[in-house]
Design a protein that fits this description.
- The chain has helices at residues 2-33, 45-65, 71-131, 138-147, 171-177, 185-189, 194-200, 212-220, 240-243, and strands spanning 149-157, 203-211, 247-253, 258-264, 284-286.
- With 299 residues, it is mainly alpha-helical.
- A three-stranded antiparallel sheet has the order 3-4-5, with helices on one face. The protein has a two-stranded antiparallel sheet with strand order 1-2.
- Strand 3 (247-253) and strand 4 (258-264) form a beta hairpin.
- The longest helix is centred in the middle third of the chain and has 61 residues, at 71-131.
- The chain starts with a helix and ends in a 13-residue tail after the last strand.
Length: 299
């Protein structure tokens, strides 16, 4: 019994290290071929080569301890694999740094592009509110932003208290409103509303023409987490690459029913083999068929 235990202990010590190295290599290979959920790709080629080198190192050590190959052959192979592992480690590290940079660039691209598309949506909804339809192109948006004005009604309280009275009208006010205390009892009990306040001279609206751009800036600058400051002259351009390319806008409909869609003309997808073919990563605002103004990132 003791001899069997000694044999088990002997072979365990003999094979434990090479088997562990081999298993580590297998696990690293499996990890290397597993797709990363963020970038949509597996680990770099250099990482996979390094994992394969560790697997071979374990396998070669097993062959050595089983006397299939000699110590000097094993030593030569291990030296070769050791040097190769160092080289592959350096290459893998450099590849990792490139991936980190691309991931940061992708995150900046998505945040800035989404911000731009949300600004376009704000402008389009404002355009439809005052023009009855969406703008057909960016030239129309520019004309709307820089040349159009809208009528703005500003509430003005004229009552000495500085607010519209929150009470039932008194006898003098009832007479001025032309109410009969019996027939119009319900209206009197409801208290003074804005329409009645205007008749009594307690409230009015001042109308002024204000530039569209002034109102748009108020709407888009309410978000404290904006990625960049709003610039009306750059609405049509993708922020990435110092605004070197325009968004593509498509339009469908008429004055009664209009839809639009906006997307980047050259989407930035650094981890895709073909950025124009891999549409799942595109950032798109709106849809021509169902008329939604939602963004693809909101689904």
């Amino acid at each position: 019994m003791s001899e069997q235990l000694e044999k088990v202990g002997f072979y365990s010590k003999k094979f434990l290290f090479p088997v562990m190295i081999t298993l580590i290599g297998v696990l690293l290979l499996l990890f290397g071929f597993k797709e990363n959920s963020i970038i949509g790709q597996h680990q770099s080629t250099w990482f996979i080569y390094g994992a394969f080198a560790i697997f071979i190192a374990g396998l070669v050590t097993i062959l050595m301890v089983t006397d299939v190959i000699g110590r000097y052959v094993h030593l030569g192979i291990m030296l070769f694999l050791f040097v190769g592992a160092i080289v592959l480690g350096i290459l893998s590290y450099n590849s990792l740094q490139i991936t980190i940079v691309k991931t940061k660039q992708l995150d900046d691209y998505r945040r800035s592009t989404i911000q731009s598309l949300e600004d376009i949506r704000t402008i389009q909804l404002f355009h439809r509110k005052h023009k009855g339809k969406f703008a057909e192109n960016f030239a129309e948006i520019d004309n709307f932003l820089f040349n159009d004005k809208i009528l703005k009604l500003t509430p003005v309280v004229l009552h000495p208290s500085g607010k519209v009275p929150d009470r039932q009208p008194n006898l003098e006010e009832i007479e001025k409103l032309g109410y009969d205390q019996i027939k119009d009892e319900a209206k009197i009990q409801d208290g003074i509303d804005l329409e009645e306040a205007m008749i009594l001279g307690y409230f009015k609206y001042d109308s002024t023409w204000v530039p569209v751009l002034e109102e748009i800036k108020k709407q888009v600058n309410t978000d404290e987490n904006r990625f960049f400051e709003f610039d009306a002259s750059k609405v049509a351009y993708v922020p990435q690459g110092n605004y070197s390319r325009e968004f593509i806008m498509e339009y469908a409909g008429d004055t009664l029913n209009s839809n639009f869609m906006v997307r980047d003309s050259r989407p930035y997808t650094p981890f895709a083999l073909d950025s124009l073919a891999d549409k799942k990563d595109w950032l798109i605002l709106g849809e021509l068929e169902n008329g939604t103004t939602n963004g693809s990132w909101e689904e």
